[in-house]
Design brief:
With 395 residues, the protein is an alpha/beta fold. The chain has 12 helices and 15 strands. It is globular, with a radius of gyration of 21 Å. The structure holds D-malate (MLT).
């Protein structure tokens, strides 16, 4: 008998979006050795970790060198000191969570794939598009049916539940990657009511919540009435606190969340205690520092620097009279490609003519065709130069 591979891999696109862009960039550099590129593509941070985190990391390293303070295996679901710090962060927004409703993870992208272990493969996953491509790919790998819910500028990229797109798992990312659009309370309430009425579960990606500046917009699905019986929230310190290379995130699974007589929080404890030995003590100590007053002040200073990049790009697009959204409550700007260009054609144009790298909208789903995403996580100098080059090219 032959080993049978997971044939669903054959249903995936040839390569993952950001890997594909990295390959195209590499090819350009090998043809143009030494060329300077302005990278506004993948949302990777460029500012170093803040002082509060660095101090905590150093102290934790010293702990590991001390007989008295040394830590071996960490609790699989996360250290109490970090779970409690995160619960305290939610409490500031009047969301009451117990520490054991919070699971420390090695980041949102890892967790978005891993969490699918909780659900039967016969479940259908509804994905609001344009969307972070890993939602689709992780479900294809698992052989799950995908229900695409396209959105566009007519609904501000914030669609309502659609009775003709029923599914068991509902992916919502707000603030959204890639469009930067943010659901308000009333809009999220409709999704929560819909999920509770249909027995679906919302997988709420809150990776960009710290970028919300408009008062009153929800940072967490658990600010919405009824969410504790229908939602799981996945969050990350990657963008909030510059942890893309350090790796740390957390997942909230309320104790009240159950389906088919099975409790999802208990199931995730069972999963984590089997499949992981937790996140390292050192990194969790660094993560806990993010939730101190000093850490909060410092990470928001960094976020403000990225917002300055967003302003530079938005001013340029305004001056060019190009349609865009995002940038205000999210670190991404989503623009319409000029002259009806396709999004990969626009990618090639920017790379070849002005050496600016962005992300083609089509990579986030078919309805992203004709759009393009800029990340605001670049250095101020590179972003300024990229904005200048963009203006000269399109004016
Ligand atoms: C993005 O650029 O969409 C993100 O940085 C990708 C990620 O978070 O993995």
């Amino acid at each position: 008998m032959m080993m049978i591979p997971n044939r669903h891999y054959a249903e995936l696109k040839d390569s993952y979006l950001f890997y594909h862009i990295a390959q195209k960039t590499k090819a350009y550099l090998s043809e143009h050795p030494g060329a300077k590129l302005y990278r506004l593509g993948i949302g990777d941070v460029t500012l170093p970790l803040c002082n509060a985190v660095i101090k905590a990391l150093h102290q934790a390293v010293d702990d590991q060198a001390s007989q008295e303070r040394f830590h071996g295996y960490m609790p699989e679901c996360g250290a109490d000191f970090l779970r409690e710090a995160i619960a305290g962060y939610y409490a500031q927004r009047n969301v009451q969570l117990s520490a054991d409703e919070i699971f420390v993870s090695s980041g949102a992208s890892d967790e978005l794939g891993d969490i699918l272990d909780l659900f039967d493969r016969s479940n259908a996953a509804m994905i609001i598009e344009p969307a972070y491509p890993a939602y689709v790919d992780a479900n294809i790998m698992a052989g799950r049916k995908i229900v695409h819910l396209p959105s566009d500028c007519s609904n501000g990229f914030l669609p309502e539940p659609d009775p003709s797109s029923e599914a068991d798992l509902l992916y919502i990312c707000s603030p959204n990657n890639p469009t930067g659009a943010v659901f308000d309370r009333a809009q999220l309430q409709k999704w929560v009511d819909y999920a509770n009425a249909h027995g679906s579960i919302i997988l709420f990606d809150a990776a960009y919540e710290a970028f919300i500046e408009q008062p009153g917009l929800p940072h967490s699905i658990f600010e919405i009435e009824g969410a504790k019986t229908c939602a799981i929230e996945i969050c990350s310190l990657s963008k909030t606190a510059g942890f893309t290379g350090t790796r740390l995130g957390y997942t909230v699974i309320p104790k009240k969340l159950a389906r088919g007589g099975m409790n999802m929080n208990d199931m995730w404890v069972r999963n984590r205690t089997t499949k992981t030995n937790g996140v390292s003590y050192i990194i969790q100590k660094g993560g806990a520092a993010v939730f101190t007053p000093e850490g909060q002040r410092e990470i928001h200073q960094n976020i403000q620097l990225y917002k300055q990049n967003a302003k530079m790009l938005m001013q340029t697009l305004d001056a060019l009279n190009v349609w865009y959204c995002g940038g205000k409550n999210a670190p991404y700007i989503w623009m319409k490609c000029p002259d009806g260009l396709g999004s990969w054609d626009f990618f090639d144009l920017l790379l070849n003519r002005i050496q600016v790298i962005g992300t083609p909208g089509e990579g986030f789903g078919a309805c992203g065709e004709g759009y393009f995403r800029f990340s605001t996580f670049g250095s101020p100098e590179d972003t300024k130069e990229a904005a200048k080059r963009l203006y000269e090219l399109l004016k």
